Fold:
Amino acid sequence: MQLQTLPKRATDAAAVAAAKQAASAKGAPAVGALDSSGYGTLKAGDYVIFSGQYADRRAAAAALKKLKGRFGGAKVIEVASSGGGSAHKTSASSSGGGTAATGKTKAPSAAQQAAGAKAIQDIQNSSGADYSKKSAKLPDTLVTPGAPPPIDKSKPAGGGTGSETFK
Structure:
């Protein structure tokens, strides 16, 4: 479900991280952020701060009901690479080979991993204008070799009072 949006033009990485941290602190589970421009079902030009991945709208609506008091503007959205049709909601996943209709991703093939590794190595060996040209030609989704990192399910770290004194 969408908790809030931030305009890309006026938002830097620190602001996105702060919004995610604030949403987690208010009790939203599985908070993430995505660039709406990569998804045909969303209005381009925003970062979407979201909570969870749900198999269908009913499950997302049930989760929304639990958080609505803390996130007044929260709503169920569909996240898919192309518009319309599906009644399913899923969050963005860039592991390659996923299906937006189910919210599940499948492991990338050896060929996809090899192509990704080659593209990464090729761009790492470039510099200057050559680097710029090659990076502009990279695909929207690049599969990297190896296993994905584990999901961090720990609660966000707490802050201080803002008045600690270090001696």
In short: The beta strands are 2-7, 31-35, 46-51.
